[in-house]
Design goal:
Elements (H helix, E strand, L loop, with lengths): L21 H18 L4 H42 L2 E3 L7 H6 L15 E3 H5 L6 H29 L8 H8 L10 H16 L7 H16 L3 H4 L2 H20 L2 H12 L5 H21 L23 H15 L11 H12 L3 H4 L2 H9 L33 H24 L9 H25 L19 H17 L3 H11 L5 H18 L4 H9 L16 H4 L12 E2 L3 E2 H10 L4 E5 L7 E6 H14 L8 E3 L15 E2 L10 E3 L4 H11 L3 E6 L2 E7 H11 L11
Parallel strand pairs: 3-5, 7-8, 9-10
Antiparallel strand pairs: 1-2, 4-7, 5-6, 10-11
Helix pairs in contact: 2-7, 2-8, 2-10, 2-12, 5-7, 5-14, 6-22, 7-8, 8-10, 10-11, 10-12, 11-12, 11-20, 13-18, 13-19, 13-21, 14-17, 16-18, 17-18, 18-19, 19-21, 20-21
Pfam families: CBS (PF00571), Voltage_CLC (PF00654)
InterPro entries: CBS_dom, CBS_dom_sf, Cl-channel_core, ClC
GO molecular function, one term: voltage-gated chloride channel activity
């Protein structure tokens, strides 16, 4: 049997913790597409197959959008219910959360919309009253116990069934999209456990969000559904196009921002993002947002809990405090997140619950807190933050209230928010990186929103009492609605999230989609750019890049510049003191010799040369393909023994009589491996690796093979040049 004629199962696949060969995967898909196009002209059935093949990508996107949207809706509803369960239970039906419980009550008043006879706190159920110190202690105790139970279940499930379900998942998804293989990271067990433990972790009250992990959940959906379609199941590069779209779906359902999701995938996550993927990402994000809107998890016909609309314009001079918020976001974004030792989840939960309960702003879920801070105070608001002193004014519209002096409740809220700011800043640093699903989007936004609201109220009071100052004169007259504190909270949230992740364009679009306010794009842009500049000045890495480096993943960051004047010969192996390069000759080695070469080395592939003397390059063969092909030939090809010769030539030369049948393996050899000369500048080599997604590149001099440069060699060299440990790269 000639191995050229029949494909061997397993050839062309990859082992765990290996990088895919983008060039080979793309050419494989091109050949497949060419074959389908040629056959489609022969018969109607072949034409129908061609049409279904073209349509399969759109169908897959539809399924990913529907599945991710449905899961996100379930997660939102469950997390809302379980968060409220820490404080009490609904007598009408334990499955109702606090808000839905009171919707069904006829005795709910508008002023006390969160109070109704159907909802009972744990103190009311156990001791019969909600007043007095004993009732407070009982509620406090139940809050801490529920929080500990939820976090214990979350960490136990992650450790027992799916260790990959912890963290946000975005650093790993960035690495996978760059071509790395992490088997099981996007599997069905990870999806199931991540979905359950995400609800538990968010409900426990830990300072984490579900938005980052939702990107991981959506990518798991994309990966699992890829197995339904041969085109995506058998091609790793095509599968990564689907995962890029799935990342967009994750942000779409997390924030209710389909366009922001597509831009997030393009700007922050994807390694390779062709135009076709852009359209499909847009379609999938749209389907996911529509599915979530149909489920209506928050009961307000909105896709997010903190949708707001501001009605007052902003003034040019307000750009100064907006930029100050940007500076704050940039400084906080460079906090050494993840550098602290991971404390036991239960200890952190206990500390969080004990400190969070006394303060109403830390007791509520982080999403509700952001919703409260974004809120633009109107006439019907009963929030503590909106309890201003009543001043008789000539002109009051239902949309906007004029600036007024702050009442005692507002000052109390300011003190509570100041304490909440310190608490959130410290506890988020400790929480992120624990062995539970944890996102950083919402905690970062909360820190920024608190800082923004504090600054906004301060500016508002300054404008009210000193409207004749130069900075306010001309645009802030008495009785006018000059300052919107909610807008400052929104700008602060964007600034802190931008400082942590270094997102710019996608972040502004996400915030714009959240609020529906086109006129606030300039303040958001100013704060986001400032936070990025400040954060970059203090440290070049965003949180995801820092995590990739800490975990040692082989990721060539496109934002990182290579400015050193080294050459390919300085990086290639073998070095001067090393043994010579392990190569295979095209027609001079037996099966036994090749097998012993494989056994003695751990390289992922071997260059094929004409002979050891000439060292003239013929091609490159992958270790895995070589092993599988030899094993397959020994089982299925009659007469193949250890003495059989292996040929990588087009034609087999005549064999001596009585010699065992040869093994022809030209079909598994890459005939056009990428080569550079020994004097090629390393910045060009790094660029080639980035843009083509190469695994290895061969180095030649006057046509003779000198050495090899792998992705690992480049990463080690870059680490060395940056005075980092070069042996920290996890790469086979």
């Amino acid at each position: 049997m000639d191995l050229l004629d029949e494909p061997v199962p397993g050839v062309g696949t990859y082992e765990d913790f290996n990088t895919i060969d983008w060039v080979r995967e793309k050419s494989k898909d091109r050949d497949r597409h060419r074959e389908i196009a040629t056959k489609s002209k022969e018969s109607t059935l072949a034409l129908m197959k061609s049409i279904s093949d073209a349509f399969s990508g759109w169908l897959l996107m539809l399924l990913v959008g529907l599945m991710a949207g449905a899961l996100a809706g379930g997660i939102d509803i469950s997390a809302h219910w379980m968060t409220d369960l820490k404080e009490g239970v609904c007598l009408n039906g334990f499955w109702f959360n606090h808000e839905h419980c009171c919707w069904n009550s006829n005795e709910t008043t508008f002023q006390e919309r969160d109070k109704c006879p159907n909802w009972k706190s744990w103190a009311e159920l156990i001791v019969g009253t909600n007043d007095g110190p004993f009732a407070y202690i009982m509620n406090y105790l139940m809050y801490v116990c529920w929080a500990l139970l939820f976090s214990f279940l979350a960490v136990s499930l992650v450790r027992a069934f799916a260790p990959y379900a912890c963290g946000s998942g975005i650093p790993e998804i960035k690495t996978i999209l760059s071509g790395f293989i992490i088997r099981g990271y996007l599997g069905k067990w990870t999806l199931m456990i991540k979905t359950i433990t995400l609800v538990l972790a968010v409900s426990s009250g830990l300072s984490l969000g579900k938005e980052g992990p939702l990107v991981h959940v959506a990518c798991c959906c994309g990966n699992i559904l890829c197995h339904l379609f041969t085109k995506y199941r058998r091609n790793e590069a095509k599968r990564r196009e689907v995962l890029s779209a799935a990342a967009a779906v994750g942000v779409s359902v997390a924030f209710g921002a389909p366009i922001g999701g597509v831009l997030f995938s393009l700007e922050e996550v994807s390694y390779y993002f062709p135009l076709k993927t852009l359209w499909r990402s847009f379609f999938a994000a749209l389907v996911a947002a529509f599915t979530l809107r149909s489920i209506n998890p928050f009961g307000n016909s909105r896709l997010v809990l903190f949708y707001v609309e501001f009605h007052s314009p902003w003034h040019l001079l307000e750009l100064i405090p907006f930029i100050l918020l940007g500076i704050f976001g940039g400084i906080w974004g460079t906090t050494r997140l993840g550098h602290y030792p991971v404390l036991e989840v239960l200890v952190v939960t206990a500390v969080t619950a004990l400190l969070a309960f006394p303060n109403s702003y830390t007791r509520m879920s982080t999403s509700e807190l952001i919703s409260e801070l974004f809120n633009d105070c109107g006439l019907l608001d009963s929030s503590q933050l909106c309890n201003y002193a009543n001043v008789s004014v000539t002109k009051i519209s239902s949309d906007a209230l004029p600036d007024r002096p702050a009442g005692p409740d507002v000052y109390t809220a300011m003190w509570q928010l100041s304490l909440a700011l310190v608490f959130k800043m410290l506890i988020t640093v400790v929480t992120f990186g624990m062995k539970v699903p944890s996102g950083l989007f919402i905690p970062s936004m909360a820190v920024g929103a608190i800082a923004g609201r504090l600054l906004g109220v301060g500016m508002e009071q300054l404008a009210y009492y000193h409207h004749d100052w130069v900075i306010f004169r001309g645009w802030c007259s008495p009785g006018a609605d000059c300052i919107t504190p909610g807008l400052y909270a929104m700008v602060g949230a964007a600034a802190c999230l931008g400082g942590v992740t270094r997102m710019t364009v996608s972040l502004v679009v996400i915030m714009f989609e959240l609020t529906g306010g086109l006129e606030y794009i300039v303040p958001l842009m100013a704060a986001t750019m400032t936070s990025k500049w400040v954060a970059d000045a203090l440290g070049r890495e965003g949180i995801y890049e820092a995590h990739i480096r800490l975990n040692g993943y082989p990721f060539l960051e496109s934002k990182e510049e290579f400015s050193h004047k080294t050459l390919a010969m300085d990086v290639m192996r073998p070095r001067r003191s090393d043994p010579p390069l392990s190569v295979i000759t095209q027609d001079g080695m037996s099966v036994e010799e090749v097998e012993s070469l494989i056994a003695e080395t751990s390289y992922s592939g071997f260059p094929v040369v004409v002979s050891h003397e000439s060292q003239r390059l013929v091609g490159f063969v992958q270790r895995r393909d070589l092993v599988i092909s030899i094993e397959n030939a020994r089982k299925r090809q009659e007469g193949v023994v250890s003495a059989s010769r292996i040929f990588f030539t087009e034609y087999t030369p005549p064999q001596p009589p009585n010699s065992p049948p040869p093994l022809k393996l030209r079909g598994i050899m890459d005939l056009s491996p990428f080569t550079v000369t020994d004097h090629t500048a390393m910045d060009i080599v790094v660029d080639i690796f980035r843009k083509l997604g190469l695994r290895q590149c061969l180095v030649t001099h006057n046509g003779r093979l000198l050495g090899i440069i792998t992705k690992k060699d480049i990463l080690k060299h870059m680490a060395q040049m940056a005075n980092r440990d070069p042996d920290s790269i996890l790469f086979n």
